[in-house]
Amino acid sequence: MSSQLLWYTTRATGIVAFVLLTGTVVLGVIGTARAASARWPRIVTAGLHKNLALTSAAMVGVHIVTTVLDPFAAIGLVAAVVPFSSDYRPLWLSLGTVAFDLLLAVLITSLLRDRLNHRSWQAVHLLVYVCWPIALWHALGTGTDTKLPWVLAIDVVCLAAVGWAVWWRLTLTDNQLARTTGILALAVLPLLTAIFVYLGPLQPGWAKRAGTPAAQLGSTTATTPSAGAGQRGSLTDASFTGHVRVTNGPADDERTITITGHTTAAPSESFVLVLYGPPSGRGIKFSRGTAQVGKPGTPSGFRGPVVRLSGHAIVAAVTGQAGKRRAEFDLTIKGSAVTGTVSLAVTGQQ
Ligand code: HEM
User: What are the residues facing 331 on neighbouring strands?
Assistant: First the structure.
């Protein structure tokens, strides 16, 4: 499986797992409320609740396996269960780890329910109300797709569904502490989440602020020891400006997008990105691409294939005389003008 496919699978299974987790929480509340009708007996709710929970856990399982297999992120299996054991976006990844640990605890105690007393089982089961927001913040903080309008729409719908379920659940309890905590969480969590998304993932440079390791982002110096004096090896979030050109070809049913740009401050660097694919709206449905940073054939020149494209983000695996680099572009396109940031980092596979 290519890194690109693994990465798409991680993202897709993450989103599906989160939606299924949301459905599980909502159905759990409907079951607790003993809501039923002749056409929808309680046993259907209970069965669906259980199956959604198991499918969600299976999706999280695939999500973890593809994360671990993907060489780009370099996240080990231990990071799936032990928080802060990976240096890749530590906080945001660890929230996923904690959500997974809580989900496992809830699932295992539910499968062993007959052997546990009701209070112990319920105490663990209520942890799902902690697991869900933690999974949401993991998704928002680590997800490549957080910025996409349809992903944001899914997050809003899930937040509304769980908000409604929690509200309903609070009407069923006499526990005053649970009510106060619940109402407080209902008031504060959506607001904090909206502020976080606006100030964090929606702003440029989030990859760096989220804690992508220096080895992947590169250092702020333009020279690396392996590149030799004066040869360019790394850049971090260097601002650039440039322009975009869309042409037909090279195949009959293809379009080519050529993006050229140069950094707006030292270290001075230029790049060319060429993306190919069948036409889709005013752009293309990406099928392949190449990236070139610096002048090819010179010590500072790197070139190689585009390995990932998602929304505004483009990643290329480029090689030059100084070795292998990971080039990351964060683009904002307005008409034919493009601005954004470019990072060039040592991949560690030299
Ligand atoms: C209940 C558990 C979990 C849920 C519901 C969940 C869900 C999600 C979601 C919805 C995303 C965002 C996908 C996107 O926007 O593209 C995501 C991203 C991610 N998750 Fe999880 N996750 C969980 C646990 C984990 C664990 C334990 C790991 C670590 C092994 C992990 C690794 C990742 C990574 C690396 C990404 C970023 C993928 C990207 O580049 O976009 N997740 N997760």
Answer: 340
Q: Among 8, 25, 62, 67, which residue has the most ligand 1 atoms within 8 Å of its CB, making it the best to mutate?
A: 67
Mutate to test the pocket of ligand 1, among 54, 62, 63 (most ligand atoms within 8 A of CB): 63
pLDDT band, very low/low/confident/very high, at 123 (cuts 50, 70, 90): very high
Q: Please say whether the beta carbons of 318 and 293 come within 8 A.
A: yes
Boundary-marking domain end, from 184, 203, 222: 203
Residues 108 and 37 in one domain: yes
Residue 283: give its domain's CATH number: 2.40.128
Q: How many CB atoms lie within 10 A of CB 39?
A: 6
Give the residue-averaged pLDDT of 100-119: 95
Tens of pLDDT, residue by residue over 230-284, are 233 567 788 889 998 888 888 888 899 999 998 887 777 889 999 998 888 777 8
For the segment 70-79, what is each residue's pLDDT rounded down to a tens digit? 877 678 899 9
With a Cβ cut-off of 6 Å, ligand 1 is lined by 10-11, 14-15, 17-18, 21, 60, 63-64, 67, 73, 75, 79-80, 93, 96-97, 99-100, 103, 135, 138-139, 142-146, 151
| 208 located within any domain | no
Residues 40 and 147 reside in one and the same domain: yes
10 C-alpha vs ligand 1 centroid, how far in Å?
7
Q: Peptide bond preceding 267: is omega within 30 degrees of 0, i.e. cis?
A: yes
Residues 133/158, Cβ–Cβ less than 8 Å: no
**SS3 label, residue 318:** strand
Are 266 and 164 members of one domain?
Answer: no
Q: Is residue 174 part of a domain?
A: yes
Helix (H) or strand (E) holding 65: helix 42-69
Domain range holding 78?
A: 3-203
Over residues 5-11, the mean pLDDT reads 89
Domains in the chain: how many in total? 2
pLDDT reported for residue 348: 47
152 & 258 share domain: no
Q: Are 233 and 223 in contact (CB under 8 A)?
A: yes
Q: Rounded to two decimals, what is the model's pTM?
A: 0.69
